[in-house]
UniProtKB/TrEMBL annotation:
<keyword id="KW-0378">Hydrolase</keyword>
<dbReference type="Pfam" id="PF13246">
    <property type="entry name" value="Cation_ATPase"/>
</dbReference>
<dbReference type="InterPro" id="IPR006068">
    <property type="entry name" value="ATPase_P-typ_cation-transptr_C"/>
</dbReference>
<comment type="similarity">
    <text>Belongs to the cation transport ATPase (P-type) (TC 3.A.3) family. Type IIIB subfamily.</text>
</comment>
<keyword id="KW-1133">Transmembrane helix</keyword>
<keyword id="KW-0547">Nucleotide-binding</keyword>
<keyword id="KW-0812">Transmembrane</keyword>
<dbReference type="GO" id="GO:0005524">
    <property type="term" value="F:ATP binding"/>
</dbReference>
<dbReference type="InterPro" id="IPR044492">
    <property type="entry name" value="P_typ_ATPase_HD_dom"/>
</dbReference>
<dbReference type="Pfam" id="PF00122">
    <property type="entry name" value="E1-E2_ATPase"/>
</dbReference>
<dbReference type="InterPro" id="IPR008250">
    <property type="entry name" value="ATPase_P-typ_transduc_dom_A_sf"/>
</dbReference>
<keyword id="KW-1003">Cell membrane</keyword>
<comment type="function">
    <text>Mediates magnesium influx to the cytosol.</text>
</comment>
<feature type="transmembrane region" description="Helical">
    <location>
        <begin position="823"/>
        <end position="843"/>
    </location>
</feature>
<dbReference type="GO" id="GO:0015444">
    <property type="term" value="F:P-type magnesium transporter activity"/>
</dbReference>
<dbReference type="InterPro" id="IPR001757">
    <property type="entry name" value="P_typ_ATPase"/>
</dbReference>
<keyword id="KW-0067">ATP-binding</keyword>
Length: 885
């Protein structure tokens, strides 16, 4: 991974210079900086705070209202204000509609805002854990300060387990090993030193042996150095700046759905305006009524229902070790059909484990393990990751380490050295001493294969020594190294000495080898299989080498036949890359921008892509993806950029998120499709009736009230059951098939609306009012109109609510697909209460009245016929289009 020009030149300069030059350039003394120097350098070089976007409470508040659905509602508020308040006579002026829309708008935004703040609180607590303290030389003494207070030129110390707080030039080290996987994506653990960099050109961060970079983790040893860069001027900070803001997949889908609704409004409103104006002759009334049609066609509580669905899904995930920072990401979970993951820390544990202990021919050797254990246990240098893995054998049931401790005592050692690349331990065999045998001590050497083998004269196999043959060594270890393993050699010799010097590390006997591996997580394979069943294939995007990536993926049963590395990607045309991304599972040795490029190509191929990573090298990919996923313990910048944070580095948690996201998607789709088609059917009936009838079939406020009451009941949909086949595969969040659904099921509703109009206008209303509409006086005509409007209000309410049961699933309602009990309870209670509303004062306030019992017999018959016809039509629709919701 190459760094940017400014940062790279700064690092290159001091990596290749003597430490004294740094002391001179930064005016550093042995006492460190005093307070005045700290303030001076902070003014020049800045603070150790990343260049991050701070999501304040106010920012999240405005984001809660900033979506296209809310904008449509806001437009309707303005329209209602002008039509019902400004352009209306004092006698008919009524701001109820406008007020109700404002309340809906505010409640919808606050539902989202409350969940956003819950997530923000959880994220803030995580990020606070990342900010660490650091040992710094100030005013002549070492003191502990917050890493945020560091300045360029500070002398700092760090130890095993610490996170490097800035870019630092090393001046003193003690067996220092660091992991730069957060920055490079490679699982290698690298030894650092304080020597002047000899390389003429460095192509990756791993080449800088005397620099430790912000975000790296100290695996073993300790170090001291001078701060070269802080905050956004570090390599870490530069990567976090070099990103583009992505457009959320939810917003794209929402725009698509809103676009369909707007098209219907754009077609119907002018038609209603012209037809009503021509028939009734009152163009102002026609204009106002046509605008109320726009209000009626739009599901006013769409933002609230969607936000309720998203918030409910986010809340459920919060109980499953997942923080959903942006609740729009719940939809992304449901639509995701490709999951890209970084290997290190995701598929693997980012922890080296001992895989094999073998003799020179590759057979398992207990002696090799015992000698290696003694060497790792007894050397006093700070243990590195390999020693830790070896010492874990104490937990093996058949490994009697207590016996070894009784038999062998430590006499001396020569610690690990960067140039020597091995460690030697001299042990006394107490059994020889007790039995008066030849009192020879045991020298055990462990380290780099090439280096240790050069020190060997013989190789031992089954107790016999053979002349050393490097060709035989490579015949054994090359295959293991090709399989992505780390291999070290174990050698020994007997000696009478009680103290050793480097010259004693010659004429050794090669005993065998130890192999180590960054092992896949136990849970990873199970999770991958679950994701495959959910039709979410995994693609591995890693900075590691091809052989390491293949080795890990083979153990996880991922396809390893097709693999490509970053270097070969440059040679492909756009068309070749588009095809390759579809057919390839493993992408190795990638730069951060190449990861983002692959995700972009997949998106251009029509996929909704999620990306899971935990290092700074993953930041570009996180921002490019439709759903950016990080894990607790990831870098601060990555946690800020991600949509979702996993509190466990476990792909099984992702499976639960995908399932919950798909359920959220289905329940949102139920509401949008059923409501939009019902509204379209009702408005179509209104349009026809307004041309044929001498009065409007429903007032603007009645039309709005009808939609509001129905939408209130739909707030229970987030808790509805979802058929398994509806969440077993990814679903596209868009309005592609919404128009088709509206045009198919909407007119069915219109048929029964017109039937109700005919029954009311030709029989029920004349019977109760005492004659046909034209034969009545003004007062009786008002009674006629009130009865008509109330009758249609009830028919629309009953049919809209009850049709939910038929269209919520392509299966037979209550038999093959059962709604959730809360849905049944709320809808039944809602119908009863809203029916009662027609006979209480609030009903009279909006122009409704009590209906005779004979009408309810007709109403029940009409609704049953409507549901039956919809059920038949549904079967035909599913058969033709293979889907419903």
């Amino acid at each position: 991974m190459k760094t940017g020009s400014h940062v790279q030149s700064h690092i290159n300069k001091y990596a290749k210079k003597d430490i004294s030059q740094m002391y001179k350039d930064f005016n550093i003394s042995d006492d460190g900086y005093n307070d005045q120097q700290v303030r001076f350098n902070r003014d020049i070089y800045g603070m150790n705070i990343g260049d991050k976007k701070i999501e304040t409470t106010l920012y999240r508040f405005f984001r809660s209202f900033n979506n296209l659905f809310s904008m449509i509602l806001l437009v309707l508020i303005v329209v209602s204000f002008f039509t019902d308040v400004i352009f209306t006579s004092n006698y008919r002026r009524n701001g109820t509609t406008c007020l109700m829309l404002v309340v809906i708008f505010l409640i919808s935004g606050f539902v989202r805002f409350v969940q956003e703040m819950r997530s923000k609180k959880a994220v803030d607590s995580l990020i606070e854990l990342i900010n660490t303290n650091v040992q710094t030389r100030r005013n002549g003494k070492w003191q502990e300060i917050s890493s945020n207070e560091l300045v360029v030129g500070d002398r700092v110390k760090f130890y095993a387990g610490d996170r490097i707080p800035a870019d630092i030039r090393l001046i003193n080290v003690n067996e220092l090993f660091v992991s730069q996987s957060m920055l490079t994506g490679e699982s290698l653990v690298i030894e650092k030193n304080a020597d002047i960099l000899e390389r003429k050109e460095c192509t990756s961060l791993n080449d800088y042996n005397n620099i430790v970079f912000s975000g790296s983790l100290v695996i073993g040893g300790s170090g001291e150095g001078i701060v070269l860069a802080v905050g956004k001027e570090t390599v870490y900070g530069e990567i976090s700046r070099d990103i583009n803001i992505r457009k959320n997949g939810f917003e794209k889908g929402a725009n698509s759905i809103a676009g369909v609704l707007i098209k219907f409004i754009a077609i119907l409103v002018p038609f209603v305006f012209i037809s009503c104006g021509l028939v009734q002759g009152n163009w102002l009334s026609a204009f106002l009524f046509s605008l109320s049609v726009a209000v009626g066609l739009t599901p006013e509580m769409l933002p609230m229902v969607i936000n309720a669905c998203l918030a409910k899904g986010s809340s459920v995930m919060g109980k499953k070790d997942t923080i959903v920072k942006n609740i729009n990401a719940m939809q992304g979970f449901g639509s995701m059909d490709v999951l890209c993951v970084d290997k290190t820390g995701t598929l693997t544990g980012d922890k080296i484990v001992l895989e094999y202990y073998i003799d020179i021919l590759g057979n398992e050797s207990k002696q090799v393990l015992e000698y290696a254990y003694l060497n790792s246990l007894y050397h006093t240098g700070v243990k590195n990751h390999l020693d830790d893995a070896i010492c874990q054998v104490e937990q093996m049931p058949k490994f009697n380490y207590l016996r070894l401790l009784e038999e062998y005592n430590k006499l001396d050692e020569l610690p690990f050295d960067y140039n020597r690349k091995y460690v030697s331990v001299l042990c006394e065999n107490t059994l020889n001493e007790k039995s008066n045998l030849n009192n020879e001590n045991l020298l055990i050497v462990k380290g780099d294969v090439e280096t240790v083998c050069k020190k060997c004269t013989y190789a031992e196999y089954r107790g016999k020594a053979y002349p050393m043959d490097m060709q035989s060594v490579h015949h054994i270890i090359d295959e293991m190294q090709e399989d992505g393993m780390k291999v070290i050699a174990v050698a020994y010799k007997n000696t009478n000495k009680e103290h050793i010097i480097p010259e004693d590390e010659n004429d050794l006997i090669l005993l065998g080898y130890l192999t180590f591996f960054d092992a896949p997580k136990k849970s990873a394979q199970e999770a991958i299989e679950k994701l495959k069943k959910l039709n979410v294939p995994i693609k591995v995007l890693t900075g590691d080498s091809k052989r390491v990536a293949v080795s890990v993926c083979r153990r996880l049963n991922l396809d390893t036949d097709n693999i490509i590395d970053g270097e070969n990607l440059f040679e492909l045309t756009d068309d070749e890359l588009a095809i390759l991304c579809e057919n390839t599972t493993i992408f190795a040795q990638l730069s951060p921008k190449q990861k983002a490029k692959i995700i972009k190509v997949l998106q251009e191929n029509g996929h909704t892509v999620g990306f899971l990573g935990d290092g700074m090298n993953d930041l570009h990919a996180i921002f490019q993806s439709d759903v950016g996923i990080s894990a607790e313990g990831a870098t601060e910048a990555l946690q800020e950029a991600a949509d979702v944070i996993l509190l466990k580095k476990d792909l099984n948690v992702l499976e639960e998120g995908i399932l919950e996201g798909r359920k959220v998607f289905v329940n949102m789709s139920k509401y949008i499709r059923i409501t939009a088609s019902s509204n379209f059917g009702n408005i179509l009936a209104v349009v026809i009736a307004s041309v044929l009838l001498p009065f409007f079939p429903m007032t603007s406020i009645q039309l709005l009230l009808l939609n509001l009451l129905y939408d209130v009941l739909c707030l229970i949909l987030p808790w509805d059951n979802v058929d398994e086949e509806l969440y077993c595969k990814p679903r596209d969040w868009s309005g592609k098939t919404l128009g088709r659904f509206m045009l198919f099921f909407g007119p069915i509703s219109t048929i029964f609306d017109l039937t109700t109009f005919a029954f009311l206008f030709l029989w029920l209303c004349p019977t109760i009012s005492g004659g046909t509409f034209t034969s009545l006086n003004h007062e009786s005509q008002q009674t006629f109109i009130t009865l008509f409007q109330t009758g249609w209000f009830l028919e629309s309410m009953w049919s809209q609510v009850l049709i939910l049961y038929s269209l919520r699933s392509k299966k037979i309602p209550f038999i093959q697909s059962k709604p959730a009990k809360p849905v049944i309870l709320v809808t039944i209670i809602g119908i009863i209460l809203f029916t009662i509303m027609t006979i209480i004062p609030i009903g009279r306030f909006v122009g409704l009245t009590k209906m005779p019992l004979s009408y309810f017999a007709f109403l029940l018959l009409v609704v049953l016929l409507y549901i039956s016809l919809v059920s038949i039509a549904k079967s035909w629709y599913v058969k033709k289009y293979k889907e419903l919701i």
